[in-house]
Structure formats: structure tokens, C-alpha cells
Please model this.
Amino acid sequence: MEIENTVAVVTGAGGGIGGAIARALAARGARVVVTDLDEASVAVTAADIEKAGGSARALAGDAASQEHIEAVIAAAAEAFGPVDLYVANAGIGGRGGIDATDADWERAIDINLMGHVRAARLLVPDWVERGRGYFLSTASAAGLLTQLGSATYSVTKHAAVGFAEWLSASYGDRGVRVSCLCPMGVDTKLLRPEAMPDDPNGDLMQRAVETAGEVLTVEEVAEVVLAAIDDERFLILPHPEVLEMYRRKGADYDRWLRGMRRFQASLLS
Model:
């Protein structure tokens, strides 16, 4: 896809990976609508893009909400034209183990998966009719491997990867391009919140991610993302070593699970 002159929506763009992707897209000539629950933060992202000479609009709201997704798509169309690229980046961590409540599961599923499904439901029919469109799903290396310390995060990120795979298999020959972003550690508030709760699962989750590989900056991730869009590559791995981990998992599941148990034990010792 040629990024210049496209109309893009980026969710979870008040900071972190979403904010960096939005800025990088705008720097390449895309007109961007950014959205986030945090109204002040997403306004800063849009203002930064405008100050740098780009075109942006901000609309605060819940990226999992059908009504908000409809409003964002309408705002993009009014300001710039039909959406060409949708970056479903908004997500939550969730540090629940087996004790995670039904409400914890419902919230994680709604944001980490159903926000993607609802956006695709609204956009894909028009993209098929136009013969072009691009859906970029932010999942996680946890969606290919697993996430120690968080059942809700691991399972919903697996689901996000699965939905992106299905979307590409079902519509890839009809003009719809799909990419799935699966990083390990990235220096964001999701990994390093301002106030860490006193939660053993949260501590395990953070230590597992920071120990597994290099923690990248959001700008480094955004650079990899734009290169993947240029190539229309499905799997985006800012940490290339994830591919080898994934291969080892598939080659011998039992051995991989034993290794994960040893890794967890080392973090808890």
C-alpha cells in the first residue's frame, strides 16, 4: 500500500505504540484520525501531527464501542474521505490468573478482540466494493506464544491473531490487506505503568516480558510497522527472535511448555 494520501484511523493513539504509528503515518503523508479513551492525550497526538505539518483529527472514546467506531469512521469520511487503513491498536493488559473474574474476561475480550471485529464488520464490505483497504491488528508476541502472569491477555491476544488470520484468508484475494503486529517488550505504560499494583501476577508478567528480550521504543516499533505496510506483510515482528520461538513451540509443544514452566520458576525464585 502507498501510505501517502491515504486516510487512516489509529486507535489507542493517545500515546505508546498507537501514538507513534499515527505520527509515523502522518509523516509519510497519511491523513489520520486518532482516538483514545484519554481525551487530553489523543488531542496532544493530533496537535503534534498538525505542528509537524501533517493532517489529523482527534476523537476520544472507547475503541471497543460500536457507536464510537461508527463515529470515528464518519469523522474520517467528513474530514478526509473514506478510511483506507484501520489500525486496531487499543488494548489492555489485565493481570489476572485463574482467579480472573467474568468481568475481567469480558473487558479483555471486548477491547482486545471485539473492537477489531466490530471495526472490520463496518469497514470490510466497503473495502471489498472499492477493491482496496488495509486492516492492521495490534496483537502481541503473547498471541503466538503465551503470557506468564495474565491468562486474559494471553488468550485474547491469541484470539486477535486468529481473527487477523481469518480476515486475511477470507478477504485477501478481494483487495483487503491485513497485518498483525506481535511485539514482545515495548516501553509503554502497558508494560511499565506509572503505579504498579501490588499484584504477584502483574510482577510476573512484567518480569517475563523484560527478561525475554530487548525492550524497544515505540518509535522503533512504528518504523517496523510502516516497512511491513509497504511490503503488505502479514506478520509484523519487531523482535525477530519471536519467529524462532514460535517455530520451536510448533515443532515440539511439550518441550516448549516444559521450557515455559522452567522460565516461570526462574522468575519466581
